[in-house]
Amino acid sequence: MIFTGKSAAKLASLSAAGVGMLTFGAKNAAAGIIDSGIINQKVGFDAGFGASFTSPTLGTGAANFKFSFVQSHPNIDTHRKVLFGGNSIAFKACTSSCGHSLRVFGAGATWSSLAAGPSRANGIVASLIGANLTAFPSLSGQRAFTDQFALMRFASGASTLYGWMELTLVDNDRPGPPTYGPDLTIVRYVYDDSGGKLAAGSLTPASPSVPEPGTLEVTGLAALALGAKGLRRWRKAQKTTAQA
Length: 244
Hints:
The protein is α+β, with helices and mostly antiparallel strands.
């Protein structure tokens, strides 16, 4: 049953409990943006950068993301990588032309606007290899960038949620002294717990969390919340309105 205008307003005013059970035609009004705030977590090889960062659980499932670094010494070379991954999560990635590394975007990009691009559960952000880092190292994956955005998708219970993380990367292919990186800063991460495909850099839900103007739908649960007395009061109000 759909009520509009004054009828809806009167019905909503009859019971605080009933109001809590009203279901609107648009997205759940309780849904919203989950924002980590500025965290500036650092993962990399140079002074002030740590070995890894794992996010708190995202949503209501077991999803999280993780960045870490590894270093190896094949032959005379030193090989450094910053890796991405996590649990029950995927990221937009580059094609094979950039080694399927994590892909980054400017503000405004959304998962849906990039539907044709690949996604990956794990891989590299950036990789650096050189002869003990004394000559010019070679870089692969992402090159240095500041305040760009990675897009993520993860499971939250029976739902799929979307969000972004703001990142800054330093890597250097100049010969010594060694501030080569790769060094990654996780500035911030944000997601929309309503399931909307949140635009990179945005703190506004992908679609409004408000009902269509003048439209209010009452479910069976709402009727129960109002109770028989509340419904009688509403019917009386309806009758009075009709006679006016």
